[in-house]
Amino acid sequence: MNRKKLLWRSGGLLCGLAGLVCLGCVSRERAGVARDKPIRVLFVYGGGHHAPITPYMRMLDAMPGIQWTPALLPQSAGMLKPGLEQEYDVLLMVQMMGQRWEQAEFTAEQRQAFAALLNKGIGVVALHQAIATEPGWVESPRIVGGVWRDAPYEVDGRTYPKSGCLHDTDLRIRAWDPAHPIVQGVPEFVINDELYLDIYKADDNVPVLVTDHPQAKGRKEIAWTRSYGASRVFFFQLGHVPEKTWARPECRRIVQQALRWAAGKSAG
Ligand SMILES: [Zn+2]
């Protein structure tokens, strides 16, 4: 083989290799554009209150771009610790307590580990009774930004009266800030659901949805965002009858957009 032929051949080989590398880049880019990485959701549920979980599962199954795994409390409480943020983007929580209202299901170590996980950074979307956190868990109002409790309780040294609820009531719901990514494309709507009364709401919650119901005294937000540690947190109060609430396209859209927001996929 003469030198010229050798150069031509090695040049051809280099071009071929370069071409393969370039094709690889293009196909990887195209794959990235075609399918955004799915949001990895850990669906944390439990307790006898609002037990039917099928409506939540149906809702999650119908959401594009969501990959979800169930985690039953209290058995799974030990999972909620630093390191979980590597495996999941968001915790969808419909419970922050176990089967019994008055009995702690998160041990003191599990409560600490959960706070440490949030300090590391993982999204939290908390629904309805997730605001009814365990008595004595001083950090939980700071995480969820609220408290519902059926007995007087204390937050940061101040005592609050017991909470109440108004069942089977029509609530007109509208976005507080229509530009917020969680409520984009969600029109004003009326839904028959439960209204929590006399709940604690943290001053640094950012309202997302409000109701004009006359018994929603004081600040009327029924959904808000906040941050805890390095985590984005969203709380949405609706959902007393899961098969009704989570079949509503408005509510599904709010949860889907909240999962994206909490995962850091949208601004706001
Ligand atoms: Zn309820």
What's the structural blueprint in terms of helices and strands?
Blueprint lengths: L2 H32 L4 E8 L7 H8 L4 E8 L16 E4 L14 H13 L2 E5 L12 H5 L1 E2 L5 E3 L2 E3 L3 E12 L13 E9 L2 E2 L4 E6 L9 E8 L2 E6 L5 H4 L3 H14 L6
Parallel strand pairs: 1-2, 1-3, 3-4, 4-13
Antiparallel strand pairs: 5-10, 6-7, 8-9, 8-11, 11-12, 12-13
Bound molecules: zinc ion (ZN).
Zinc ion binds next to loops.
What does this structure look like?
The protein is α/β, with parallel strands linked by helices. The protein has a single domain, classed as 3-Layer(aba) Sandwich (Rossmann fold), CATH 3.40.50. The chain is built from 6 helices and 13 strands. Strands 2-1-3-4-13-12-11-8-9 form a 9-stranded mixed β-sheet, with helices on both faces. It has a two-stranded antiparallel sheet with strand order 5-10. It has a two-stranded antiparallel sheet with strand order 6-7. Helix 2 links the parallel strand 1 and strand 2. It is globular and about 45 Å long. It starts with a helix and ends in a 6-residue tail after the last helix. 38% of the residues are buried. The N terminus is likely disordered. Bound molecules: zinc ion.
